[in-house]
Design brief:
Layout lengths: L1 E4 L14 H13 L4 E3 L4 E8 L2 E8 L6 H11 L7 E7 L7 E4 L8 H10 L6 E5 L9 H5 L9 H18 L1 H8 L3
Parallel strand pairs: 1-4, 1-5, 5-7
Antiparallel strand pairs: 2-3, 3-4, 6-7
Helix pairs in contact: 1-5, 2-3, 5-6
Length: 185
């Protein structure tokens, strides 16, 4: 199973709202003792871990957000992992800060990273976890907002911890249980 956290590589983007997916898989890797290794053929950093008695590959595509599909397709082919056996984690400014939402598949909802994955894999049947990062001010620019760091009054650690817990629930109990427990909270 591939657990793919979306984000942008490099220190410039570390800890920005757009890197919520990276932060979630980083936490899982740390909790499971995984070490990040560059898989240049797959344009990714990967960490092999065991979670919930399953061997998983945590993934951080290094292609930048809008080209995530290139990395995910390469990984899918290399590790013979069909789209329905993946989970993609990404930020969503359409969800209030702190909200989580699992979906089995569907449209990309305007998220360029997910759009790239859907296009590259040729299917919308890609399970995903949307992580609510809140909305920009009405006069604010969306790109500037998602590439900004979280505000001091936002509980980022709690958000990422809940995201990691949600992913573990998904791995242990499946998407139905994860949806029931975490969607809307």
């Amino acid at each position: 199973m591939l657990i793919v956290g979306l984000g942008n590589p490099g220190t410039r983007y570390a800890d920005t709202r757009h890197n919520a997916g990276f932060m979630a898989v980083d936490l899982l890797a740390a909790q499971a003792g995984g070490k990040w290794v560059a898989e240049s053929d797959c344009h990714s950093e990967v960490a092999a871990v065991e979670l919930a008695d399953r061997e998983l590959l945590l993934v951080k595509p290094q292609t930048f957000m809008n080209r995530s599909g290139k990395a995910v397709l390469a990984l899918s082919q290399r590790f013979d992992c069909p789209p329905e056996e993946m989970l993609v984690i990404f930020d969503d400014f359409l969800l209030d800060f702190g909200r989580l939402r699992f979906r089995r598949g569907g449209s990309d909802g305007g998220h360029n990273g997910l759009a790239s994955i859907v296009e590259s894999l040729g299917t919308q049947a890609v399970p995903r976890l949307r992580v609510g990062i809140g909305q920009p001010l009405p006069e604010g620019d969306i790109i500037d907002y998602v590439l900004s760091r979280f505000d001091d009054d936002e509980s980022v650690e709690e958000l990422i911890e809940r995201s990691a817990q949600a992913i573990v629930c998904y791995i242990e109990e499946g998407i139905e249980a994860a949806m029931n427990r975490f969607n809307g909270s």
